[in-house]
């Protein structure tokens, strides 16, 4: 029987927090984060994360929670709060090495059920390929990346070596934003996450499509969190622009919608009708079960959310774990 695989699950790494504690860059980033989230969201976030620390750090507690959800295997990535895109080159190298090693050690406690992803410092493109290689050397399956770095989009030519090496090695790239570039417009009602995360996913994927990155690297194994955000269900607008405007279509060879069938998307869209539309847009073979374990913006019952979409048996089992099995090591 195909195992149930959750590709969107996180680990909190106290080692990384200790590494950056007291760094001047951290204070500035935390101050900006406080402004961007606002006091009401921060008052909720602190207790929410503290309550979930055992599930984020203790493998036994994680496995018990997985059993309760009916999840057999998790693809575990560091909490995006560990990106620390402010870090200088020396700090960034220490950070990615520590994060990769700590994530690998966490997953090694139950290697049959836990597979891990590392981090790359996108703010230092020259380090990105080294960070990917280091993650793979630890036995991780790839790396988690944000939707952008300060001053750089994923379409930046500086990342060409990262895409090339990821394609050559078959590494998994898990696209998971942290923060949002819409800034103060989202300072209330946790809009930085509620609206910001799906916006960042859509923008980042559009950069990869329209710049031709996916033409040059058609075998990239990229998983987009949050169902790819707003892009898959509104891809018709991208197709129209590609057909109607020379400035839009110049960078990529094919209709934007065609590239969605080269990517993977998690199922975390919080609406059964949107999940059905995601599957229609990208294909049932490109959607993977995702929960955002164990955060409050995820789902405690990923299989229940999948059942609510009332898919065919074949599509249900593909999303449940069949598609992910092709990405994971064979037993």
TrEMBL record:
SUPFAM superfamilies: Metallo-dependent hydrolases (SSF51556). Residues 5-329 form the Amidohydrolase-related domain. Pfam families: Amidohydro_2. GO terms for biological process: secondary metabolic process. One of its GO terms (cellular component) is cytoplasm. One of its GO terms (molecular function) is carboxy-lyase activity. It comes from the Bacteria. InterPro entries: ACMSD, Amidohydro-rel, Metal_Hydrolase. Keywords: Lyase. This is Amidohydrolase. It comes from Streptomyces albiflavescens.
């Amino acid at each position: 029987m195909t195992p149930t695989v959750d590709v969107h699950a996180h680990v909190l790494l106290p080692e990384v927090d200790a590494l950056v504690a007291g760094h001047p860059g951290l204070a500035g980033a935390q101050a900006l984060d406080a402004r961007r989230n606002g006091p009401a969201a921060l008052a909720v976030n602190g207790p929410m994360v503290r309550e979930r620390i055992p599930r984020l750090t203790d493998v036994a507690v994680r496995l018990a929670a997985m059993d309760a959800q009916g999840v057999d295997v998790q693809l575990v990535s560091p909490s995006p709060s560990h990106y620390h895109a402010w870090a200088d080159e020396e700090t960034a190298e220490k950070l990615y090495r520590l994060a990769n090693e700590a994530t690998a050690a966490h997953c090694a406690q139950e290697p049959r059920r836990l597979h891990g992803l590392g981090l790359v410092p996108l703010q230092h493109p020259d380090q990105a390929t080294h960070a990917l290689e280091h993650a793979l050397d630890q036995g991780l399956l790839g790396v988690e990346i944000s939707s952008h770095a300060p001053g750089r989009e994923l379409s930046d030519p500086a990342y060409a070596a990262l895409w090339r090496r990821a394609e050559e090695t078959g590494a998994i790239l898990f696209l998971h934003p942290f923060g949002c570039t819409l800034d103060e417009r989202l300072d209330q009602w946790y809009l930085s996450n509620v609206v910001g995360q799906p916006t960042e996913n859509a923008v980042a994927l559009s950069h990869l499509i329209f710049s031709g990155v996916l033409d040059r690297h058609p075998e990239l194994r990229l998983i987009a969190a949050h169902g790819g955000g707003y892009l898959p269900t509104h891809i018709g607008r991208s197709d129209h622009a590609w057909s109607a405007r020379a400035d839009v279509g110049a960078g990529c060879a094919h209709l934007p919608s065609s590239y969605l069938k080269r990517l993977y998307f998690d199922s975390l869209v919080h609406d059964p009708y949107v999940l059905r539309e995601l599957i229609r847009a990208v294909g049932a073979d490109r959607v993977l079960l995702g929960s955002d374990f164990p955060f409050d913006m995820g789902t405690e019952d990923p299989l229940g959310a999948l059942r609510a979409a009332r898919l065919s048996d074949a599509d249900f089992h593909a999303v449940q774990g069949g598609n992910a099995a092709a990405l994971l090591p064979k037993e």
